[in-house]
Structures are given as structure tokens and as C-alpha cells.
Amino acid sequence: MAKIYYDKDANLDSIKGKTIGIIGFGSQGHAHAQNLRDSGCQVIVAEMQGSDAWKAAQSAGFKVAGAAEVAGEADILVMLAPDNLHPIIYRESIEKQLSRGKTLMFAHGFNIHYSQIMPPPDIDVSLIAPKCPGHILRQLYTEGSGAPALVAVHQDASGKAKDIALAYAKGIGCARAGVLETTFAEETETDLFGEQTVLCGGVSSLVKAGFETLIEAGYQPEIAYFECFHELKLIVDLMYQGGLKYMRYSVSDTAEYGDYTRGPRVINDLVKDEMIQILADIQDGSFAREWILENQAGRPSFNALKRMEAEHPIEIVGKELRDMMPWLKK
Predict the structure, then answer these.
(1) By CB count within 10 A, which of 14, 31, 144, 163 is most buried?
(2) Which residues of the chain have pLDDT under 70?
(3) Which positions are annotated as active-site residues?
(4) SS3 sequence, the chain?
């Protein structure tokens, strides 16, 4: 079982008096910066000059500068720009500004685990990964609660890397809910696996396959969309609230029986065998190499797949049906 840390296990004094540089004022960055400031920490933000994010950070009252200037001034640097940009930002703006005693932090371990960033040995390298989107992290903080997070230490040059990371987790509100200890390898590999096989890849392919099966059998696309796509949120919300047991309690007995008897026929041993292979590709670095090369080549496959998926009938039908649902636009 994972070790879990809470507010009582963290001391904000470990980061108060230090300057925290947030690299990127996007989905996660805006929430981290504001939560830390509200916790009494000194925060500066790095963004591209003149960008919408630069203007948003200024409007929120932060000192905003380029990454190199922030890296030179900050004691704790937190990489919250998109993961694929980390190596470029690090090489061009951060690497030369790192000096003994500084901390380099991440919210995802990809670039450390796959050696795209190799920090000097005299700094701390750690990770705090909130398990929610940034706007939820901010909302929960303002409501007096927080989201769970993961903590990991890759390099403990000071002997205080975990203390600093836990203080940071407290500063953004995550220690209110609980911070689970992990490693960079475990966080990275499980995160990629979950995205590819269940949360994004698995669910997307499952709903498309169900939709296509009904269409090919002669059913109306709109009905297929409702049954295989639209109602997924209802089921996931029930699972999120109380687990599989609560979801099964909440649906009809017919649906529950179908769950038990037909679900394993769809997600069977062949599917699990493919999951095992996908996990192996993540563990041995094959997927990372593929994704890194894809970015270096200008994302030709990514962009082609994105265009193709946007034209899938489930997207076209879905857009028309969602126009009938004004509550989605709130």
C-alpha cells in the first residue's frame, strides 16, 4: 500500500522565504501559482512575452518574465509547460541557471524518466502530480479542500527534497486530501498506460466500436450515439462517486447482469494481452522514443490521425445532438 502524507506531515516553512518559479501559466500553472500565493508563498511566472498566458498571469497580479530570468531568480523551479516543450525550455533557458541547492520540480515524470532532461547532481529533483485538472485544483483550494496528488523524489542533493515537495503539495492544497508516495518511473509508466489503454485510447476506441456496430446493423446514428457515447458520463460519474459496486447498484438489474456476463466477452484475454504489450512498450522506452521522434519530425502521424478522427461520424452526429443540450454550453 502507498504511504500517504497529509497537512500535518508537511511544513510550509520549507518553501516560505524561497522564490518559486512557475514555468507555464496554463491548465496546471495558473492553479499552482494562485494556490501557492494564497498560502503565503512568493511566486513568479515564466511565459512567452506577449502571449495570452503572459497577459493572464499579469492580470492575476504575478511578476512575469522569460524562463531564463525566472530560472535565475527562483529557488524552486516547477515545470508546468506542455511536456513536449520541457527539453527545449530546459536546454535553452534553465540548464545554465541551475546552481547548487535549487529544486527542479515536475507534475509528470516523462522527461526525467526517459532522460530527456538530465539535471546536474547538486540540485533536488522532485515531482508533485495533482490528480485533477488545474481549474478543479484551484476551485477545491478556494473551497477549503484539495485534490489528492502523487509525490516522488528523483534526486535528493539537499537531504530535504521530500520535505520541500510535501510543503509544495501543502501550498497547492493537495495535502488536505492526501499525497501518495511513488517514484518517477511508477508515475510515468502508470500514467501513460492508463491514458493509452483505458482513459483515452481504450474508451475512445470502445465507444467508436459500439457506435459503428449499431450503425452497420442498420440502427439510426443518433440512437447509437445516445446509447454508446452520451450515457457514458452517467456511468462514469456513478463509478467515480462510489466505485463499480455503486454503479451496479444504481443501474437496472438487466444492465448489471449484462455487465457481469457480456463485459468480459468484449474486454477479454486478447485485449489484456494487448494491454500487456502496450505496458512493455512503455517500460522499455519504445513508446517514448516513438513520441519523441514524432515531435522532432513535426508530428505528421499525430496531425493526420487528429484530422481523420475529427471526421468520424460519431463526432458529426454528436455535435448535432449536443446542440440540443443547452446545459452543456453553461
Answers:
(1) 31
(2) 330
(3) 108
(4) CCCEECHHHCCHHHCCCCEEEEECCCCCHHHHHHHHHHCCCEEEEECCCCCHHHHHHHHCCCEEECHHHHHHHCCEEEECCCHHHHHHHHHHHHHHHCCCCCEEEECCCHHHHCCCCCCCCCCEEEEEEECCCHHHHHHHHHCCCCCCEEEEEEECCCCCHHHHHHHHHHHCCHHHCCEEECCHHHHHHHHHHHHHHHHCHHHHHHHHHHHHHHHHCCCCHHHHHHHHHHCHHHHHHHHHHHHHHHHHHHCCHHHHHHHHHHHHHHCCHHHHHHHHHHHHHHHCCHHHHHHHHHHHCCCHHHHHHHHHHHCCHHHHHHHHHHCCCHHHHC
